[in-house]
Amino acid sequence: MAIQHINSALRAPAPPSRPYAKANPGYGKRSAPDQRPPRADDFALLPERERYVAGYVDHLPDGAAMDIKSLAKSLPLYGQMAVGSALRALGVAGHLRHVRCPADAGGGQIRWITRTYWSRTARDNEWWATFLGAAPAAPSGPAATSAPAATSAPAVPQQRTHEPEPAPAPEPTPQEAPGDAPSPAYLALAQLGRTDARLALSAADCSALEEAAAAWLARGVNAEYLVQALTAGLPPAVDSPVGFLRRRLRDKLPPLLPEAPAPAAPGAPERRPMVECTECGAPGRPEALPDGLCRSCRTVAPADTTTAPEPPAERDVAAYVGGLRELLRQP
């Protein structure tokens, strides 16, 4: 009876009654297959906040924006931090996964787009790993390449060497000297401070981290993905941006995917998507991110096992007070 009362008192607003944010073409919500029909008690076992967010997300159509900012604008009861925590809990409960899908951008280049797969029916890790391992890559063509990217640099070509190699600029100008133009890795690092002031870097800092950032681009991600991965899940304050980013570039380096062999026939094998950590955005294979979380975010800081000192016994307090009185009596 208590759960039914909470549901009736706190019902998520239905998207059809108000405009919802649409994601760029190829991005946004994707419904998982084989879901049961909607029922009034679909999310009754979830906590109040998660039930509210899940009810709203479940009514969104495919292609709707599923990022934290868009959801927080549509859900007046909770801010961005609360919505982010709710999405993390829904991922652990088996309702969603953030997935990076490769899309053919043409000209031998690839673009990684983010989709959020949603399942009204809670799924276990084995189901998600099987489903995402067989999920098709994003379609190629105008729908996949028309999404604007504010901080995006040219994607790395599919056929690449093991050594970091900057991609050519999309529209070089005659005045630019090839040797003086900054690399895509340098430009991505320079954009971090504009994306989040906590990660503002100097020119010397960008040069010091340029090689580590280029290693990310050499593994098939573009500058937009690099910026998003480095700015996701930041602590409230960053004392040393260059030290923080040096460690994050090392610890969250994407896996090295094998190069696809040149197809002898028109039907080339599709690339498998990578799951994003719901908490920090780190990429990985579906089986490596159970509950939608990477190893770092799954590791909870060990609780303090040191027991608090017990209060002194009655006789100890009396002896202590007596000692203080003796000290006061001394000249």
Annotation keywords:
disordered N terminus; alpha+beta; single chain; 331 residues; 2 domains; 36% helix; 9% strand
What does the largest sheet look like? 5 strands, mixed
Instruction: Report the C-alpha radius of gyration, rounded.
Output: 26 Å
The sequence of SSEs as H and E is HEHHHEEHHHHHHEEHH
The strand line-up of the biggest sheet is 1-3-2-4-5
Structural class by SSE content:
alpha+beta
The span between the termini is 72 Å
Helix fraction bin: 25-40%
Uncertain residue ranges:
1-9, 140-164, 169-178, 301-306
Assembly type of the chains comes to single chain
- By DSSP (H or I, 4+ residues per run), the number of helices equals 12
Number of domains: 2
List the helices and strands and how they pair.
Blueprint: H1 2-9, E1 28-31, H2 48-59, H3 68-74, H4 80-92, E2 96-106, E3 109-118, H5 125-133, H6 142-145, H7 184-195, H8 203-217, H9 223-231, H10 241-251, E4 274-276, E5 283-284, H11 295-298, H12 314-329
Parallel strand pairs: 1-3
Antiparallel strand pairs: 2-3, 2-4, 4-5
Helix pairs in contact: 2-4, 3-4, 7-8, 7-9, 8-10
